[in-house]
Amino acid sequence: MRITPSILNADFANLGAEIARIPDADAIHVDVMDYRFVPNLTIGLPVVEAIRKSTQQMLDIHLMIADPDRWAPSYAEAGAESVTFHVEAAKAPIRLARELRRLGARASLALNPATSIDSVADALGEVDMVLLMTVEPGFGGQKFLDLVLPKIRRTRELLGERDVWIQVDGGVSVETIERCAEAGADTFVAGSAVYSADNPNAMVNRLRELAVAACAH
Ligand SMILES: O=C(CO)[C@H](O)[C@H](O)COP(=O)(O)O
């Protein structure tokens, strides 16, 4: 069970210090948005390069951008250990996944809530992680969409014994993480739940404990 906090709700003026507040995170999840694929704009490659220099922690880049075929490889070249792109935006998802792996990164495919996992079954052998959006992409602080739970179960079924992580992203909190873990998710993005906590690192550990306990049932 991995907790990968999103820095979307962190203080962007003090990113290095904000990341240092969550030493027990399994990775730092960075939401890259471009005003085209989603109606929001966050940070891009220069900031990710700066983050790379400021931390040894695993960087888990989530590209919510148009034309990931063109831009995603640069994030792998910048030293990100994991690069996620959206299947709704990619022109050649399998070719892109192979290119990311060739560059030494884990390749990951993201799906919006309405996109079926069966529609990307052919690509599952080419990726290291599937990110299932549990809100519409674009903004932190939204309500978790329970309607995605059956898709988490179906993804686990399709993956079988393959060592591919299932990450859920959006509205993950102490109220919702157990449902996700029971359905088969093993990697959890939490933005507002972590950065609105008095002690973000304690929240990381609490979320992980809840996920582990939910799976032990
Ligand atoms: O990808 C995202 C939005 O598109 C964010 O990672 C996600 O929403 C996390 O924030 P929160 O935990 O506050 O929902």
TrEMBL record:
Keyword hit for Manganese: yes
Essential cofactor(s): Fe(2+); a divalent metal cation; Zn(2+); Co(2+)
UniProt entry keywords in alphabetical sequence: Carbohydrate metabolism, Cobalt, Isomerase, Manganese, Metal-binding, Zinc
Superkingdom per UniProt: Bacteria
Active site (record annotation): D31, D169
Entries under Pfam families matching the protein: Ribul_P_3_epim
Metal-binding is among the record's keywords: yes
Pathway assignment: Carbohydrate degradation
GO cellular component, one term: cytoplasm
Transmembrane segment boundaries: none
Sequence positions that bind a divalent metal cation: H29, D31, H62, D169
Binding annotation for substrate: S6, H62, G138, F139, G140, G141, D169, G170, G171, G191, S192
EC number per UniProt: 5.1.3.1
One term of GO molecular function: metal ion binding
Cofactor, how bound (note): Binds 1 divalent metal cation per subunit.
Catalytic activity field: D-ribulose 5-phosphate = D-xylulose 5-phosphate
UniProt function note: Catalyzes the reversible epimerization of D-ribulose 5-phosphate to D-xylulose 5-phosphate.
Family membership noted in the UniProt record: Belongs to the ribulose-phosphate 3-epimerase family.
PANTHER family given in the database record: RIBULOSE-5-PHOSPHATE-3-EPIMERASE (PTHR11749)
Protein name: Ribulose-phosphate 3-epimerase
Organism of derivation: Tessaracoccus rhinocerotis
Biological classification of the source: Bacteria, Bacillati, Actinomycetota, Actinomycetes, Propionibacteriales
Gene, per the UniProt record: rpe
